What does this fold into?
Amino acid sequence: MLARTLAALLGGYLFASAGAVLASVMFVDRDGLPSDALLGGALWGLVLYALAIIWAFGVRSPAKAWGSLLGATAVLGASAALLVLAQRGAA
It folds into this structure.
């Protein structure tokens, strides 16, 4: 139970943070204010955090919870980094 709780709290936090960064970077490219992008990213991060907590307690094993959350975090983080590099290269 401790491993699932830690996966939900820590893994979920990392997953939500990476998702919030990706959403913020995606929203900045639009014609809005940067503060709107940050707010949109933060709200999206809250949704992802709730989903990560549900996921951590819904899978069969804590190892699968950790693996899937960390894998998804890596994908979201890499996507955000590539998008930032692409935006800087286009500017």
User: Anything to note?
Assistant: The first helix runs from residue 2 to 28. The CA atoms of residues 79 and 85 lie 10 Å apart. The radius of gyration is 15 Å.
